[in-house]
Design goal:
The chain is mostly helical. It contains two helices and two strands, in the order ββαα. A two-stranded antiparallel sheet has the order 1-2. Strand 1 (about 5-10) and strand 2 form a beta hairpin. It is rod-shaped, with a radius of gyration of 33 Å. The N and C termini lie far apart (about 95 Å).
Length: about 120
């Protein structure tokens, strides 16, 4: 299991991860570090534990908002999918009606042509 060194708030941490996940872990740590830096700018140095807790809560809130937005988008996509299916069914009915009308017209024309041929 590889070990990865990351920096958060100027402090080094060594973390273990699965093989091939080193870059992802470093990216996540960089995101946490950025949140901590943002907090430092607004609340100042309030202690490392408190900064990490606040950063975690901010990221959890962002995650919650993103999941809510994803759920809303999925609901909207389901509505659009149903509308598209309904429109497809209506289009199919219209095509069937048009085909029926053309068949009827063709039958009438054939009847007229047959009567003219007998006349």
């Amino acid at each position: 299991m590889p070990l990865v060194n990351v920096m958060i708030n100027g402090r080094a941490y060594t973390l273990a991860c699965d093989e091939g996940e080193e870059g992802h872990l470093k990216s996540l740590a960089s995101h946490v570090d950025q949140k901590v830096k943002e907090l430092l700018g607004s609340v100042g140095q309030v202690g490392e534990q408190r900064l990490l807790l606040m950063a975690s809560l901010l990221m959890a809130d962002e995650h919650h908002e993103a999941m809510a937005k994803l759920a809303e988008n999925e609901r909207e996509m389901e509505i659009l999918r149903r509308e598209q299916e309904d429109a497809g069914a209506e289009r199919e009915k219209s095509q069937e009606a048009a085909a029926g009308a053309l068949d009827s017209a063709a039958t009438r024309l054939e009847d007229i042509a047959a009567r003219l041929a007998r006349a």
